[in-house]
Specification:
about 280 residues, 5-stranded mixed beta sheet, binds aspartic acid, alpha+beta, Glutamine Phosphoribosylpyrophosphate, subunit 1, domain 1, single chain
Length: about 280
């Protein structure tokens, strides 16, 4: 809610969709109580917080950072990659070095709370990426500005206690996020490996291009994943999408995924239907 409030404020004061999504998700990156994004995100199995983020604009320009440490706002570094380099993805130490060159400050991303949880986790060191659907999340945001132009942003600390170096779907253009200004945009949360296998967000935008509503496209996106995982119930995926007309939709594997929508009609929390009841 705080993130969408911020994004709306940016749009209302004349900012474009790109500014709105960047400023919006930065709110969660800075919020230490959100333990799946930015500062306060849970660490990998070696105790290091590594962040993934990407951003995409109306012209199909995009930027991404993967597995980056010590920077609170990976989304803004991703935007700098997009705007200041001829590249799209910077990884790990290279991304961090680039961030310092751009003026970002070094900061310890581990908090008292995530440190304690990690120390507790270390006692058993059980790696349950697919079983525990509570130890990961992402913020993905899609916006349309007054000109009708779209942009999207996606940022996460990924799966808690992941193997060092693991990168999920969130910073992968087409998987965790995709924008096509002619059609619409989509973004994903959940077990990134499954989203990457179907290039989920790109798939959803293409389905909208073929005439599906955002809701229908998200449902088809989840169904494609479930087809590859028949009978499997131990993981969560959530998609959300918006088309050029501002219609939105969402769908997920298990109940519990909601998304916030902010429009001229105000702020709404949209409950999303799911593959399993
Ligand atoms: N998609 C993220 C990842 O796999 C995690 C999540 O959204 O729950 O890193």
């Amino acid at each position: 809610m705080n993130a969408t409030n911020k994004a709306w404020e940016v749009l209302k004061s004349g900012g474009n969709a790109l500014d709105a999504v960047e400023q919006g998700v930065r709110v969660e990156e800075a919020d230490e109580t959100n333990e799946t994004v930015g500062k306060g995100g849970r660490p990998d199995r070696d105790g290091n917080v590594t962040l993934d983020a990407c951003i995409m604009d109306k012209d199909g320009n995009c930027g991404s950072v993967v597995c980056m440490e010590n920077i609170v706002h990976p989304i803004s570094v991703a935007r700098k990659v997009m705007e200041e380099t001829p590249h799209i993805i910077l990884a790990g130490k290279g991304a961090e070095k680039f961030a310092y060159e751009q003026g970002f400050k070094k900061e310890d991303l581990l908090t008292e709370s995530t440190k304690k949880q990690y120390e507790e986790w270390l006692k058993k060191s059980e790696y349950e990426t697919t079983i525990n659907i509570e130890n990961h999340d992402t913020i993905g945001m899609l916006a349309i500005d007054e000109k009708g132009d779209m942009a999207g942003a996606c940022t996460t600390s990924g799966m808690a206690y992941k193997v060092a170096g693991r990168v999920g779907d969130s910073p992968i253009i087409g998987a965790g996020l995709f924008i096509d200004n002619e059609v619409g945009g989509a973004t994903a949360t959940g077990v990134g490996e499954e989203v990457i296998r179907t290039v989920g967000s790109f798939l959803i935008v293409e389905l909208m291009r073929q005439g599906k509503s955002p809701q229908e496209a998200c449902e088809e996106g989840v169904k494609r994943i479930m087809k590859k995982n028949e009978g499997r119930k131990d993981f969560q995926i959530g998609f959300l999408a918006i088309n050029k007309n501002g219609e939105t939709g969402g769908y997920c594997v298990h109940p519990g995924f909601t998304y916030r929508e902010y429009s001229e009609n105000g702020h709404e929390n949209r409950k999303v239907t799911s593959f399993y009841e």
